[in-house]
Amino acid sequence: MAGAPAEDLKYPGRLIAVEGLDGSGKSTQVYLIKRWLEQQGLRVFFSKWNSSILVKSATRKGKNRALLTPTTFSLIHATDFADRYERQLVPLLRAGYIVLCDRYIYTAFARDTVRGCPPDWVREIYDFATVPDLIFFFKADLETSLDRITQNRTQLSYFESGMDLRLSSDIQESFRIFQSRILEQYLAMSTEFDFTIIDANRLVEEQQSLLRKIIASRINLDDFQG
Predict the structure, then answer these.
(1) How far is the C-alpha of 97 from the C-alpha of 78, rounded, in Å?
(2) What is the pLDDT of residues 129-145, one digit of tens each?
(3) Which residues does 31 contact at the CB level (< 8 Å), separation at least 6?
């Protein structure tokens, strides 16, 4: 089980995480939140899942050579997260920043479990991580997510479609099966971790307006002037 929220740990900073299926639009929304906070002159930092320079090259090589089992896949992502957590997230929370995370430990809880890793084992790996002060889950229909991805790319990613699990020889069908199983995991976690669920099928502007209202009501933004 993860630790306490940043506020309870007496960190002056606040941690906001966004979660959702691939193609849910969460990355667009968190980018707009970052811009909104920056335009107010607030101290803000953005971190993305699987982005540690230390680990990223190893992950890429493993994927390209099809060397990753579900367990090694899980451990590499956990290593990436731990590196970013210790080098970036905690120091900036202590320094009084609003830290925005495009995916957090709940991504691992959902994906790794669907790939066959024991849920309790996955959670124990991340038990050092503080719980975010706000967790937004962008709930989008599977077909909406798929349409958004295919509009912006020529093909689906092998791993985001769960092709390594051999769910279907058709990559779009594999995407539907894999992502639907991940969605089940997210929904099962939503009450436990107090997710704030956002209807990701709504217009971008409507979602963004709602996010700003929620953040402003839960966090005293004046405390984070640069």
Answers:
(1) 23
(2) 999 999 999 999 988 99
(3) 46
CA dihedral 72, 75, 77, 80 (to 10 degrees): -130
Q: What is the pLDDT of residue 67?
A: 64
Distances (CA, A) of 154 to 21, 149, 157: 19, 9, 10
Q: Where are the domains of the chain?
A: 14-213
Kindly list the distances between the CA atom of residue 58 and the CA atoms of 5, 73, 206, 211, in Å, as whole numbers in the listed order: 31, 11, 39, 35
Which SS3 state, helix, strand or coil, does residue 214 take? Answer: helix
- What's this model's pTM, rounded to 2 decimal places? 0.91
CATH number at 14-213: 3.40.50.300
Task: Show the CA angle centred on residue 25, arms to residues 19 and 30, nearest 5°.
Answer: 65
Task: Tell me which DSSP letter residue 42 carries.
Answer: B
Q: How far apart, in whole angstroms, are the C-alpha atoms of residue 145 and residue 66?
A: 26
Q: Give me the sign of the Cα torsion angle 84, 85, 86, 90.
A: positive
Round the average pLDDT of the chain to a whole number and report it: 91
Which residues lie across from 131 on neighbouring strands? Answer: 5
